[in-house]
Amino acid sequence: MPIADLGGATLNYTVKGSGTPIVFIHPPVLTSMNFKYQLEELSKNFQVITFDIRGHGKSPYSPEPVTYPLIVKDIIRLLDYLNINKAFICGYSTGGSIVLEYILTFAERAFGGIAIGAMPDVNDDYLRKKISLGIKLSSKGAINLLAWSISWKNSNNMKLFKQMFTEAKKGDYRNIEQYYQYSLKYNCVNQLSKIRLPILLVYGQKDKPFHSYARQLHEKLPQNELHIIENVDHRIPTKAAKELNQLISKFINAI
User: Fold this and answer.
1) Fewer Cβ in 10 A, N or C end of the chain?
2) d(CA 100, CA 113)
């Protein structure tokens, strides 16, 4: 995977395929390896771009704290580096929240958004406790434990687990903690009506704690379509890859 020197940021990234560009954004601890099945399949018809957020995977530690606005600016820098004016922006979990932030900030640089298990804020105890645990473990430098647990839960076979774990444990605990911290305080609920681009919302039928966020975004986003994938929980990119890839392809082709 190549490394991009973006003037203040050094990011590990991959570009595969040609056609309409799609940028994928991963949650804390995980890396671009989380989108292995999207890179393999969607690159047959689109230009798929994955990258490791600062201090994650092969992207080095960032002295500048990791926040959603910083990640958005890094995506813009990466698109400029690749001479791409517009792309579809796709994020998983907290990465889906960054999709919202990206379009609120740089709507002119997007065709639309794809938010997988996303939330415009954290307003329930279940998710608050999960993120708080991530903050606690990363603050103590327990990245191997976090990487093992999250990679195991997100993988669907031993080969993928080993690949995900190998990359995830390379992350820097300081930047990972910052990413977690920012996700806990982020709130764009009152700005959702400003998002005029089409948004694809994808959630797992078994992901009950996130269904309130699905309803919230479906009600407040002016132009969106909501899909619930059966027999899967939160870990859609790896555990319902076929269904997700079909939804993404259909959504982009329709636009």
Assistant:
1) C
2) 8
What amino acid is encoded at 251 in this protein?
F
Q: Which CATH architecture has domain 3-254?
A: 3-Layer(aba) Sandwich (3.40)
Structure tokens given for 201: 């919302």
Return the structure tokens found at 63. Answer: 């002295």
pLDDT in tens, 81-109: 999 999 999 999 999 999 999 999 999 99
User: Is 2 within 8 Å of 14 (Cβ atoms)?
Assistant: yes
Q: CA–CA distance from 189 to each of 68, 101, 121, 194, 201 (Å)?
A: 15, 11, 7, 10, 15
Element (H, E) at 254: helix 241-254
Nearest to 197 by CA among 105, 123, 64, 71: 105
Contact 3, 10 (CB under 8 A): yes
Q: Is the pTM of this model over 0.85?
A: yes
DSSP three-state, residue 51 = strand
